[in-house]
Amino acid sequence: MHAVGSKVVVVGERFCAPFAVELDVSQKSALKSDFEVRDPQNRLVFKLDSHALSLHDKKVLVDQDGNPILCAHKAKLISAHEKWEASLGDKYDEEKKLFWLQKAKVMQFKTHLEVFLPSNPGPNPDFTVKGDFLERQVQIFCGEDSIIAEVKRKMTASNVLMDKHSFVVTVWPNVDQAFIATLVVVMDEIQD
Questions:
Q1: Where are the domains of the chain?
Q2: Predicted local confidence at residue 53, as pLDDT
Q3: Which among 89, 87, 106 is positioned nearest to 97, based on CA atoms?
Q4: pLDDT 10s digits, 127-185
Q5: What is the pLDDT of residue 64?
Q6: What is the full DSSP assignment across 51-67?
Q7: How far apart are the first and last CA of the chain?
Q8: Phi, psi at 190, each rounded to 5°
Q9: Residue 192's pLDDT is what?
Q10: Alpha-carbon distances, residue 192 vs 8, 47, 80, 164 (angstroms)
Q11: What confidence score (pLDDT) does residue 1 get?
Q12: Which residues lie across from 68 on neighbouring strands?
């Protein structure tokens, strides 16, 4: 995490706003694992596209113009903890790693994910995600106790009928929205 004043910057400072932002994160169709992220005026902010050859194993976050920002992929480690890694660009690059996340415990009934930055020697995570993601009630914390975003399920008739995953994400002021949007979609992949 790059501390820029009182900002929480993981992907880039340009993705921070000086005010709280409500984002609509919605699966484009029940058949594909692609997501769109829109602002309250329904303007496209980001898209997270899965790639046909990797399906659930790779997501590329692009801006509203289609420019790649980061790539998140499921790590190929044999582990009881499901692990995802993210780096700058449209292909995963260890040298440009931004963060990695995993389940805090192998068996868990509630969501508890730990997010680590490359500069963290461990064992304490830089960010934690806690709540009940199946019910879409989750909080994202900087460390263990400072809330930086909340995720809630967006219930509409079409979302329920079409089994589309849709969330309202409130991102606190000066928090990296690209980072939070990526975490939400990866959480959906882990919990699906």
A1: 2-6+44-191
A2: 47
A3: 87
A4: 999 988 666 689 999 988 899 999 987 765 554 444 457 889 999 999 999 999 999 98
A5: 93
A6: -TTTGGGEEEEEETTS-
A7: 28
A8: -65, -40
A9: 62
A10: 28, 19, 16, 12
A11: 53
A12: 62
- Residue 157 is predicted with a pLDDT of 53
| Alpha helix stretches (DSSP H) within the chain | 157-162, 177-191
Superfamily designation of domain 2-6+44-191: LURP1-related (2.40.160.200)
Question: CA–CA separation, 179 vs 163, rounded Å?
Answer: 25
- Reference 132, options 162, 105, 152; nearest CA is 152
Distance between CA atoms of 186 and 109, rounded to whole angstroms?
18
At residue 163, the pLDDT reads 47
pLDDT digits (tens, 9 = 90+) for 45-94: 999 887 644 544 788 999 999 999 999 988 876 555 678 899 999 998 99
- H or E, element range at 149: strand 146-153
Say how many residues make up the chain: 192
Burial class for 62, CB neighbours closer than 10 Å (0-12, 13-18, 19+): middle
Cα–Cα distances in angstroms (integers) from residue 62 to residues 2, 68, 107, 118, in the given order: 21, 4, 33, 22
